[in-house]
Design goal:
The complex is a heterodimer of chains A (71) and B (442). Chain A has 71 residues and is an all-beta fold. Helix content of chain A is 0%, strand content 52%. Chain A has strands at 3-6, 11-16, 23-24, 29-35, 38-43, 48-52, 60-61, 66-70. In chain A, the strands form two sheets. A four-stranded antiparallel β-sheet of chain A has the order 1-8-6-3, with no helix packed on it. Chain B has three domains: 5-97, Rossmann fold; 126-195, 2-Layer Sandwich (Dna Ligase, domain 1), CATH 3.30.1490.20; 201-427, ATP-grasp fold, B domain (D-amino Acid Aminotransferase, Chain A, domain 1, 2-Layer Sandwich), CATH 3.30.470. Classes of the chains: A mainly beta (71), B alpha+beta (442).
């Protein structure tokens, strides 16, 4: 069952840490957002494999927007 | 004014006081912002991301040339401690309101600054003499000075790229993160190791030099209430600081500034332990965010002084004429959620009610309807109170914060009110780890 990972804050995608196909553990940073000069990791809620990353580095994302999908 | 927000407005006010017309610059995100509408003239400099606007040397020099500006005030943050910017201003025939590019460069290299200050007799914390080569090297240095240690960026200060490491096992990951942050912020990943001073206070000394042989201090500021190594509350005088420690600090600060022939406003930062021992941390070669507390207790206008020095005038005061009267406190109102670990809270300000009254000063960069962008520092405003005594300044601050309304974004106001009410703060017994230790949690 695919699961969306959403941004918990509005920010700019600073770094994509995990890429499609990468295995992740619960708590691993999937992407890092930059907001107001702070780097804020968006973490995986569970172990699994990344299916897709629908955002690009430098892109502005709103709070609640999907930034990664787990398989 | 190569800056935005409250500090651009603050500089504008000083310019007006001495009859200088001011020109604002602004990014696409700041069109219509208070610092733009306040200025005599305003020039767009590019898209919202700071790298393409407020951090673009070419864009700002270009704007200054277009309007025929004589001088550039960098404010704090952005390009204020970028020696290449100061040099580019000089090359373009613009007066940079600040120290020389050489002084900025020297103090910007935190390892060089440490060495230089140690060589003129200022105490520095034990640490690596130069940058560490790799994790193994960092571990050797850390073991030599003893854990906990701080990994610090050689290329710049302000707490950016700084990591506390409690044990050797945590070093590798902290080292990798700190290097990445240092590279991103300063373009230089080099790190050095310094002993972590547990339970110390952050006390700094305001300096003014005029390039004609006069270097004065404007006394100290206490700035220990910090989160992520960034200040939240500052005051002058520093409470419960023994007079002999204070005298030694100001002497050391002036000696350090003289050693580099420092011109314009600068700040020498120190850590002070409970026994009164102190160590030089770094020098900030610019106007500080917290300069108003110094202005309130000394009655002097630091930005006007900066402009006069930049115009080649001598400082008009003797050291013994600069006296601290009463007590002043500043709090920083950030668009952050203190209940969620000071997570940024961008958004639109729907309601803004500012406090006012006798002994209350507000330096505000936003208005009702302002968008608080993800692209910039979350500082909304500074509230400064001045009283005949410290308890009076605290009481005024409590009233001011109670009267301050910011809707639309989360702010640090609830946290700041808890700081004012906290018995340790009221006693003046503060240290730099209190916030992270949860002393002011709801």
């Amino acid at each position: 069952m695919p699961e969306d990972i959403k941004a918990h804050i509005t920010g700019v995608v600073f770094q994509i840490v995990a890429h499609p196909g990468d295995p992740v553990q619960e708590g691993d940073p999937v992407i890092v957002l930059e907001s107001m000069k702070m780097e804020i990791p968006v973490e995986s809620p569970r172990s699994g494999r990344v299916q897709s990353i629908p955002v690009q580095e430098g892109q502005t994302v709103q709070e609640g927007e999907v930034v990664a999908v787990l398989e | 004014m190569a800056n935005r927000g409250e500090i651009a407005r603050r500089i504008m006010r000083a310019c007006r006081r001495v009859g200088i017309a001011s020109v604002a610059v602004y990014s696409e995100a700041d069109a219509g912002a208070p610092h733009v509408t306040d200025a005599d003239e305003a020039v767009p400099i590019g898209p919202a991301p700071a790298r393409q606007s407020y951090l673009s040397i070419d864009a700002i020099i270009g704007a200054a040339r277009r309007v025929g500006a004589d001088a550039v005030h960098p404010g704090y943050g952005f390009l204020s401690e970028n020696w290449r910017f100061a040099e580019a201003c000089r090359d373009a025939g613009l007066t940079f309101v600040g120290p020389s590019p050489e002084a900025i460069r020297l103090m910007g290299d935190k390892i060089q600054a440490r060495r230089l200050m140690a060589s003129v007799g200022l105490p520095v914390l034990p640490g690596s003499d130069g940058p560490v080569g790799d994790v193994a090297d960092a571990e050797r240095e850390a073991t030599a000075v003893g854990f906990p240690v701080l990994l610090k960026a050689a290329g710049g200060g302000g707490g950016i790229g700084m990591a506390r490491v409690n044990a050797a096992g945590d070093l590798a990951s902290a080292y990798a993160t700190a290097r990445r942050r240092a590279e991103a912020a300063f373009g230089d990943p080099a790190l050095y190791v310094e002993r972590y001073a547990e339970g110390a206070r952050h006390v700094e000394v305001q300096i003014l030099g005029d390039g004609r042989g006069t270097v004065l201090h404007l006394h100290e500021r206490e700035c220990s209430i910090q989160r992520r190594h960034q200040k939240l509350v500052e005051e002058s005088p520093a409470p419960v600081l023994p007079s002999e420690t204070k005298a030694a600090l100001t002497r050391a600060a002036v000696a350090g500034a003289r050693a580099i022939d420092y011109v314009n406003a600068g700040t020498m930062e120190f850590l002070v332990d409970s026994a009164g021992a102190f160590w030089f941390l770094e020098m900030n070669t610019r106007l500080q965010v917290e300069h108003p507390v110094t202005e309130e207790v000394t009655g002097l206008d630091l930005v006007v002084a900066q402009l006069r020095v930049a115009a080649g005038e001598p400082l008009p005061w003797r050291q013994d004429e600069i006296i601290q009267r009463g007590a002043a406190i500043e709090v920083r109102v950030y668009a952050e959620d203190p209940a969620k670990g000071f997570l940024p809270s961008p958004g639109t300000i729907t309601t803004l009610v500012l406090p006012a009254g006798e002994g209350v000063r507000v330096e505000c960069g936003v208005a009702s309807g302002s968008a608080v962008s993800v692209h910039y520092d979350p500082l909304l405003m500074k509230v400064v109170t001045h009283g005949a005594t410290r308890p009076e300044a605290i009481a005024k601050m409590e009233e001011a914060l109670a009267a301050c309304v910011v809707d639309g974004v989360k702010t640090t106001i609830p946290f700041l009110r808890r700081v004012m009410a906290h018995p340790d703060f009221r006693r003046g017994t503060v240290h730099t780890q209190m916030v992270e230790q949860g002393a002011f949690n709801a």
